[in-house]
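Review form for a predicted model. The reviewer records the input and the model, then writes brief findings.
Reviewer: anonymous (R2)
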Amino acid sequence: MRTRKLVTHLVCGCLATGGVAAAQAQTTSSDAAATQTGETLESIIVTARKKNESILKVPVVMTAITQESLEQHATDDLYTVAQRVPGLLIGTSLAANGLQVSIRGIGTTANNATVDNSISLNVDGLQLTQGLAYGIGMFDVAQVEVMKGPQALFYGKNSPAGVISLRSVDPTDTFESSARVGYEYEAEEKIAEAMISGPVSDSVKLRLAARYSDQAGYFRNDAEVIPGLASINPTDRRVTPTEDVIVRGTALFTPDGPYSAKLKTSYQYTDMQGTWPANELGYCPDGTGGVAPRNISFIAGDDCKINRSIRVAWPDPAVFTGLRNGGKPFNTQKQLLTSLEQNINFGNGLTLTSLTGYYWLNQEYLYLASVIGGASALVSDSDFDSDQLTQEFRLASDYDGPINFTLGGFYQDGMQKTAVRLRGNTVLGLADTLNDFAHHIDIDSISFFGQVVWKIAPDLELAPGARWTREKRSHEQYNYNAANGPVGKSVLLDPEIEATNVSPEVTLTYSATDDLTLFAAYKTGFKSGSFNGVIFLTPTTAGSFDDEKVKGGEVGLKSRLLDRQLSFNAAAYYYKYSNLQVGANEISGVTGALILRTLNAASADVYGVDMDATFAPFSIPGFSVQAALNYNRARYTSFPNAPCGNGQTIGQGCDQLLNPATGRYTSQDLEGEPLVRAPEWMGSLGFDYEMPVGDTLRLSFGTLASFSSKYSLNLINAPGFFQDDYVKAGANVTLKAGEKWELALIGNNLNDKITAANCFNSNSQNGVFFGGQVAGAVLPGPAGSDEASCVAERGREVWLRATFRM
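Model under review:
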């Protein structure tokens, strides 16, 4: 059925535009706000408003990183992008949740695979919001653009906190080919890449690129299990052995006449075999000994620090019978991304664009759901599937007069399926099957958008616009475990939700000179609610959560100074968010099982300043220094019924909403507390220098250091659930022989600072599921307070890389 819809959309797009759309102009500029060409800094070209514009003239707070700079720093995933964009943080979640992205402290914190991220990912025009898509490898990328703040108009669905846009390299006008091999010492990662590109006729150009990588893993699983508890020590201690393959093909069709076309298709296969992700205990407030009622030392020997050593026991397949992969943890993902852009230029200043996108994902995994080294209490043997079809039409004018416009419509037909099978340790007294259920969520979204650009004067531009959205989601749950109730399709309290929204915005831009732009903007944004897709819902349990909304504004300037030796950009912003979608981890008072919920916080204020500068002095040809800084204050202005941590006492703030049946409180008030992943300060500083060596060689050096102040890692904001401030420093050196070959030594995070951007609160000391914690009382109970189970980010990387070109 969905295949027929894809064909229909492709045909409709072709009929509407008369063919396949033109490629965007390829950018070859260098880093963030400018590049050094000759003796001056020149502004680079970006597509923040779906047209090629100088970054100096676009009234958007953004960072652009081009292909040359990405390769120089071995930037091959969003983690390394975040080190170069102050205000951007990436957290790793569990199971099918994928990555959790935050900009200025706003981002998804829910451990829920069926919630949209507040920052959308746009890959060659295809808009994505599910967390697993953000893990797609950044290979053969021409430019990365990170736009901060609400983006309602130009990137498919509304994005209330920002957009990350990846544009892959287009086919070249002449024949080119290249090959690259590399080795990373710490994780023992090997890569091989190849590319071929060029014209095959006067009107058709093709490009094919492929990448293979294989790594042993940066972390080590040092678990030592307690004998007789149905668990085994890991048979592979590295975390995580991974093979990854990416293939991307591009066809560019530019015949004579008004019609042109670009088709891009990418496929990625990722296979992790062993412990995943690098989930470890980072905080143990009550020690590591055994506690009542089980008195088993589940986490004995754990240092409870975020470092290179983790401790997670594997299940014994002789007891956990029927697990896939012989009981060995694994994570296999397949992703397919296709975008077809078609343009027809009517010749009278009007261009019609059709953009058809298709995304398909399949994930199968065996995940260790209890982060304890002494025994494996719970295993998730589950699946996740997603596909979506999108279609956008956009009509844009380019008149010589003072008024131009963009009008368009967007449609999304999406599906998400989670199949959750939770297997318990029967030796520890848990049921063999705790849960076996599936969620099916269908998404039907339509929106219309428009913007008018009015040149009030030659140097003054007013641009009002808005997007109207109607989104429907339907939800089905299927139960396959008789212990949870009737087998088959479940009766749900709220099987359907619908949202309608209008998000207006207006910008005023003053181009005082070619080297100075001032702008002010009022913006709004919206993200639809959805359903909790990772927990089993009873007929009386609400499964949905509400829409997230934002309104506010920003003012800024973009400039080139000192005869274009210096670029300097600054912006101040203030936004008010309501109904933030956040995640909470709680222990069921009935079963003792861990419950992962998505709920709405009341409201939050976010305000701050972004600044960046690049200086390339005439007196030192080939030298430039770059700096960027973000000050951000993100606080809940109202969140009176936030969940308490398990074991959180009245004295620790769990003093709201008294339960008369138990005599204990159930909630805390987080007003004034910081949002998750919201450091007040983030910044980066680096330099680049290139010099000739003899007549044919060039030698380049570069450094980059990024820093962050302290930030929260979990909604409950308890002591121990914070990442301390840190600095990560990198350096690189490259020897080039023109366009023939290059040899590079690249180091990222050379000081080997291991950090986390996501932690989960759980009763690890008592095996996660065996009680002993009391929340909302004077004392916490024998098992004390929650431990912090954190997903650590890979530390030092040292790459040796050789590239050959023809």
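Findings: The chain is about 5% helix and 55% strand.
Further findings: Residues 727 and 771 are 39 Å apart (CA to CA).
Recommendation: see findings above.
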